[in-house]
Specification:
single chain, about 475 residues, alpha/beta, Rossmann fold, 6-stranded mixed beta sheet, 4-stranded parallel beta sheet, 16 helices, about 15% strand, binds ligand F0G
Length: about 475
């Protein structure tokens, strides 16, 4: 076993706190069923005394583990020896100052930043977590790995399986719920694709039942090793800002893995004395998949020292079942009503003085068009962070001169259907894809110009429109 003697798994419930060996394959506490964390005996490990010490590893970029934007920070997720990690070059992502978008959001010039996680090998932030989960899976001898997915986790799992040849990928997807960009990846990379007659929440429930039966390693973000990898998104943000903490980190909320991982990163960095200031965290739901927003904003649940109010959550889920309400949003990546990391997200919100908001599909697509107009672009779910920033600015929660980082979780090419429908001149296409979602306008559309097949007409059109 190549796993660290100084890492262990621990139940997050303060009334339980059961611990487990780092080599056990678990996605819940065996005693109380709560989520698990990976914890470390930091005093026995070599921890940098300042974050800037990580810069020394930039010179080791020919070593694959140090080239990785995840394992470059190995000292802060040391559950395995550095020479035993799995990497396919994840985490070479960019923090970009976004000035044209700052105007749209209502921020001062130079204060809004975009963290482009779509630049990962499979086109989404998932690769940060998959590198860590695959590392643990290999160390435990797994032969098959599975996930339920709205598309990006499955694309990432399928890619890691295909590139590394370490294990076979089995993916569970809902019917008609996954964008073609993402589905095409899983199919192309050769994953066994199980299409369930249901949505993501159904697929998640089924994969949790099937994995123990068939001894398959589960790589959804309920797996605590996934979140260790995703902590490094925050480390790269800090790195890009010269190791300064921004005032706000804004992230879309689906299964709530990212927000949970970011919270854990800041809890640890503060505990280790590597940061002074903790940023505020904003988690943004789509209004068609707004469990967190409903529970946090409307029904007032909080982390409350880990005691929370589980009955409020249970009652809400019963209401969903009773009324047959399913998640529904154009941001298919976050079309989730039963976020598995809810409790960890509450902990993150508590530690980071967080807020939760929800934004409509119209707001998401308008924000997405504005992100795209600034270059690089993102998929719809990612733009929830920008739409959320705009909303929080308009509410005066965020000041114009604060430093705000929006996480763009997935690549623009993941969901071309939504993008093309927004920019189309074909009203039927618009109505079919977006009208049914309550989207009425495409205020920032860049429409194609139709011209006859004639040089003079083409020249005339270009002169008219350029
Ligand atoms: N953005 C994108 C592009 C995603 O793919 C996801 C989640 C999220 C945001 C939400 O992140 O779960 O950490 O709150 N996609 C998962 C999937 C559920 O299956 O690909 P979260």
């Amino acid at each position: 076993m190549t796993l660290s003697n100084y890492a262990f798994q621990k139940c997050i419930s303060p009334t339980c706190g059961e611990t487990y060996d780092v080599g056990e394959v678990l996605v819940a506490c065996k005693t109380c069923g709560d989520l698990l964390d990976i914890e470390y005996e930091w005093d026995k490990l070599a921890i940098p005394t300042s974050l800037s010490q990580f810069e020394a590893f930039w010179q080791q970029r020919t070593v694959p583990a140090r080239f990785s934007g995840v394992w470059r920070f190995h000292e802060l997720l040391p559950f395995v020896e550095l020479d035993q990690v799995v990497t396919i070059g994840e985490g070479q992502t960019l923090l970009q100052q976004a000035d044209s978008l700052a105007r749209y959001v209502g921020m001062d010039h130079g204060h809004l930043y975009l963290q482009y996680e779509g630049m990962n090998p499979s086109g989404s932030f998932k690769d940060n977590g998959m590198a860590a989960a695959f590392t643990h899976a290999r160390a435990t001898g797994a032969k098959r790995a599975a996930c339920a997915s709205t598309g990006n986790t499955s694309a990432s799992l399928a890619m890691y399986a295909a590139v590394t040849r370490l294990m076979k990928a089995v993916i569970f997807i809902g019917t008609g719920k996954i964008s073609y960009g993402k589905l095409s990846q899983a199919l192309d990379y050769g994953a066994l694709t199980v299409q369930i007659a249901g949505d993501f929440d159904d697929a998640m429930a089924r994969v949790k039942e099937v994995c123990p039966q068939l001894d398959i390693y589960l790589v959804n973000s309920i797996n605590p090793f996934r979140l260790e990898g995703q902590k490094t998104i925050m480390l790269r943000v800090l790195e890009s800002l010269g190791w300064e903490t921004p005032d706000w980190v804004i992230v879309p909320g689906g299964n709530l893995g990212n927000s949970s991982a970011f919270g854990k990163a800041f809890i640890e960095l503060k505990e280790l004395g590597l940061i002074e200031k903790v940023p505020r965290l904003a988690v943004i739901n789509a209004s068609g998949a707004n469990t967190l927003s409903e529970l946090y904003e409307q029904r007032g649940i909080r982390w409350d020292g880990g005691l929370g109010a589980p009955n409020v959550t249970d009652q809400y889920y019963e209401e969903l079942d009773h009324t047959g309400r399913k998640a529904s949003t154009i941001a298919s990546a976050i079309e989730i009503n039963r976020p598995v990391n809810l409790r960890k997200c509450l902990r993150a919100l508590d530690f980071c003085d967080g807020v939760v908001r929800e934004v409509s599909d119209q707001e998401i697509l308008d924000a997405k068009a504005q992100v795209g107009a600034g270059g690089i672009g993102c998929e719809p779910a990612s733009a929830a962070s920008v739409a959320g920033a705009k909303l929080l600015r308009s509410q005066g929660v965020i000041g114009t001169d604060e430093r705000v980082v929006c996480i763009l979780t997935g690549h623009q090419l993941k969901d071309p259907t939504a993008t093309v429908a927004y920019h189309t001149t074909d009203q039927d296409q618009f109505n079919q894809v977006l009208g049914s979602r309550g989207v009425k306008l495409a205020s920032y559309a860049n429409r194609a110009v139709g011209v006859p097949n004639d040089v003079d007409e083409i020249v005339k059109a270009i002169q008219l429109y350029s």
